[in-house]
Amino acid sequence: MIPPDQLAAFVFVSIALALAPGPDNIFVLTQSALYGPRAGILVTLGLCTGLVFHTVLVAAGVAAILLTSAFAFGLLKLVGVIYLLYLAWLAFHASSTNLKADKARPLSHFQLYRRGIIMNITNPKVSIFFLAFLPQFTATANGPIAHQIFLLGGVFMLTTLLVFGGVAVAAGGLGSWLQRSQKAQVYLHRIAGFVFIGLAAKLISVNLSR
After folding, report:
1. What's the pTM value of the predicted model, to 2 decimals?
2. At the N or C end, where does the chain have fewer CB atoms within 10 A?
3. pLDDT tens per residue across span 69-123
4. Could you give the maximum distance between any two Cα atoms of the chain, in Å?
């Protein structure tokens, strides 16, 4: 079982990452602002459904790597450091996003849900991110790695559902604020960048202590 303090840290980081502007939450925001909170919530449900796919892939992959070699598992974490630092670099160099959307093409409820699933499953960056992110909060002393990955994936999905659902409900005012103050988007990117650096530093310290 993952220690409560480590799980709490994971939840905090997940919330920070969910709040950082990106294609997924921007789409939730614009659809909600245009067609109401229900549209954004349906997209969010689709995105969370897609996360199941990535969680299964990562759980199976990480478990297989650990069974092959403990050294390979450590190497995976070090590769994760490089990837997280790369994400931090992207976040610090990101600019604001145009939040305007086309009102002439509303989608049905099923289309919105399906769009969320497809957006998530067809994005290889999600699997790569999970592969770099989730193993940091696992340890062989806490039980089977695959079980820990599934737990973390479930927590990440719940966090995404709550944060994106909040974005959907607050879409009107939030979208207008972000459109008027695009610096706010940049600040959110910077916060995400510091989160990525913190994750990389944590992983480096854990590997050096072993």
Report:
1. 0.79
2. C
3. 777 777 777 777 888 888 888 878 766 555 455 554 667 889 889 988 998 888 7
4. 57
Residue 180, number of CB atoms within 10 A of its CB: 9
- Cβ(46)–Cβ(113) under 8 Å? yes
Q: Are 59 and 146 in contact (CB under 8 A)?
A: yes
C-alpha closest to that of 179 among 15, 14, 34: 34
Nearest one of 71, 59, 74 to 147, comparing CA atoms? 59
Give the span between the Cα atoms of 48 and 82, in whole angstroms: 26
The size of the chain, in residues, is: 210
Cα angle, residue 121 at apex, residues 111 and 39 outer, rounded to 5°: 30
Scan for tokens 């973390």, then name that residue: 152
List the one residue out of 46, 57, 26 whose CA is nearest residue 117: 46
Is residue 158 within 8 Å of residue 164, measured between CB atoms?
Answer: no
Question: Using one digit for the tens of pLDDT, what is the confidence trace for 122-156?
Answer: 877 788 888 888 888 888 888 888 899 999 999 99
